[in-house]
Amino acid sequence: MDPQQTVFYRIEKAIKSYRQFAQQQIAAVQSGITVDQLLILGLLDAEPDLAQKDLAKMLFKDHASITRMIELLVKRGHLLRSVHPEDRRKFKLAISTQGQQTLAQLKPTILRNRAHALQGIAPAELQQLTHILNKIINNCD
Amino acid sequence: MDPQQTVFYRIEKAIKSYRQFAQQQIAAVQSGITVDQLLILGLLDAEPDLAQKDLAKMLFKDHASITRMIELLVKRGHLLRSVHPEDRRKFKLAISTQGQQTLAQLKPTILRNRAHALQGIAPAELQQLTHILNKIINNCD
DNA sequence: TGGATATAATTGATATATCAAATAATTACC
DNA sequence: GGTAATTATTTGATATATCAATTATATCCA
Question: Which backbone phi and psi does A92 adopt, to 5 degrees?
Answer without folding.
Answer: -95, 120
